[in-house]
Amino acid sequence: MKTILSLACILMVTVTAHAQNLPAPSGLAVNFLRSPDAAVITDATPEFSWMFPQSGVQQSAYRILVATSPNLLKESRADCWDSGVIRKPTSVNVSYAGSSLKDNSTYWWQVKVWSISKLESQYSQAQQINTGNYDRSGLDYPGQSKWIELATGQWVSEDKQCATFSRINPVLTTTPDNKGLFVDFGKSAIGILEFTATSEQDDVPITVHLGERRTEAQAVHKQPGRSNIGYDRVEMHLKKGTHHYVVKITEREIKGYLHTQKLAPHYPEVMPFRYAEILGDFQSFRLSNLTQGALFYYFDEEASDFQCSNDTLKVVWDLCKYTQKSTPFLGVYADGNRERMPYEADAYIQQMSHFSVDREYSISRYTINFLLDHASWPTEWQMHVIMMAWEYYMQTGDDHLLKTRYEDLKRKSLIALTDDNGLISTRTGKKTEAFLRTLNFPGRVTQFRDIVDWPQGPPKGRKAAGNQSPWAGGETDGFVYNDYNAVVNAFHYRSLVLMGRIARVLENMEDHAFFVKRSHEHKAAYLSIFLDRDKGVFKDGDSTDHASLHANMFPMAFGMVPEAEFKTVAEFIKSRGMACSVYGSQYLLEALYHAGEADHAMALMTSEDRRSWLNMIRVGSSMTTEAWDEYFKPNLTWNHAWGSAPANIMARKLMGIEPTEATFSHFRISPQPGTLEQASIKVPCIRGAITCELVNKADQWQMTVSVPGNSEAEIWLPTQFTRVHINGLDVTPIRKTRFAGGTRKVYPLESGLYTILAQQ
Q1: Residues 664-759, CATH architecture
Q2: Of the four, 350, 390, 488, 620, which is 20 to 30 A from 734 by CA?
Q3: pLDDT tens per residue, range 6-39
Q4: Which fold has domain 2-158?
Q5: d(CA 282, CA 291)
Q6: How many C-alpha atoms does 392 have within 13 Å on its Cβ side?
Q7: Top-level CATH class of 163-297?
Q8: Alpha-carbon dihedral of residues 182, 186, 187, 193, nearest 10 degrees?
Q9: Shortest CA distance to 664 belongs to which of 386, 345, 304, 356?
């Protein structure tokens, strides 16, 4: 807490110091690549972005230079483009407008800016750009990214960053019972083991065990059972003398999955492990320099931070943030190390949490394009791609993806499954092979079906398979499947709403009007068929009285609950506890915050039950797991980012930081701390870091807020606070708005630093 307050004080001094000298822009990016020198760009007219300095408040103009050499980055000498002074506030997605950039070439660029008070900055540091092959006609699918060898042994990706090996030293090295060597690297990572060995003889055998979990006796756990918790045994032979070794992990042969991603051929095989155990005759050799080579996708540790008065909540956030760092090693949002396959729902949750901890967008763009052409089997998963595309746009303002994939996105709404009653169904004859091919689903018609939650249980009277829950119904809270499914149709409603917004962004007002009208009609049909007004809760389907958690949390999360049933639905959701999977927890937590039930959400995030993030840590995982526990899904992995919901929930819901316009040009801060006494967060966005500290007392909130340069914010405060002071001045709200089952007062903020005191 003290750190952020001190930082605020330092920044206030900095603002004064720069009153006559605007700092240079920072955070440069090309096509959202923060390190374009470690990639190639296949766009002949790239787009430039930068962070405008906060002390300038708002940008009034900019000047961009692009040249074939950093030595030519001078006004009137830049041989590709000197934009001149462009009197516009745009600092995101500025299109290149100079002479043609040659493919497979290298360029440099920099930018300077002016503030609305006519302060002028120096030029930014120069950034290198590598162009690639502009001819995209031979791609297997739009947005495909290939590996390019820039120089001998220097491989990079097209249009996205890539993973590189980070060397991590052990936190513990011991020789239990003087037998072998046991090494603990502190956290599991997906990577390799390296070491140096000095041997007195040639062909000395050793055995290496690698694993994500250990036994109590300081040894690698060697019996994974049906689980996919990382483990491998490798037999090696040492050469005479001193040599460097990379343990050759058993190569993966992944079968039976539609869209498994392959590790690039220039990478050695990798696996998740935290522990290493090396056995052999240590009288004849010595080991040194043991390192865990962690294959991490490009990640900025300093982009985000979270501190709070609840130690458990902090531990959960750390778990989820590390998961975002360690799981995208394939350069795509995938399901973990077992299948190495992108799934839409998994990718959506990973994307939302990744956005909350790092300023990274290229992997999201790539994954969306991939999933639009490589569908998985669950009905609801299709509609997650629309949600991904919209959230990507809100982060980046990149409408190019929306334009080029608009027809595909429309199909992913599953509007073709609409029946006469206004609802969609996969069980009334419209789910045909021809329809599935329009979704780019290559499997059998029978494979494509409603999921509700995962894992599910075995058919009645049958033994559970390794990927199933031990009891019928699994993680669905006993959901009863009917022809018309409340969960599927809640996602359809959300898809219609978002397609209306996408159509408006693209200025397709005919489609905008259509989707708005259809969403209203669908919601009316939904309430008519699924809402049990006598009980004040939603039923699972059209021909059952059963009400599950899922049938209620999704409509609450998507804003479908009428005011008259708001309280009863919220109480029902609370009564069910964590009766869902780690995937379902994303929507359960969203539903609780939407209902204003912050304390209940907090209790779930800090629970010590078997269904909890603390249980993931307690059993030994360093990353979020595929299921709450091995008991609930015997073949689970310990490296699955769809379990990382708290990372985005703490940023978006607990601290309430969400964009209201694309690129965070406008955003809101509407905290819901409940009884949490203190919290501070640093959230990345394309315009810079947003920080918010909150001290929550019985009768007042004390806040410190930092709004990035060239953006504007609104603070939404509970109406119980009748006196509000911002930077010492008594202020009045500009309006009131409904929020989280109540009402909030709205106060505007421009770029800058603020101390806020709200009192009853």
Answers
A1: Sandwich (2.60)
A2: 390
A3: 333 434 444 443 445 899 999 999 999 999 999 9
A4: Immunoglobulin-like (2.60.40)
A5: 19
A6: 26
A7: mainly beta
A8: -40
A9: 356
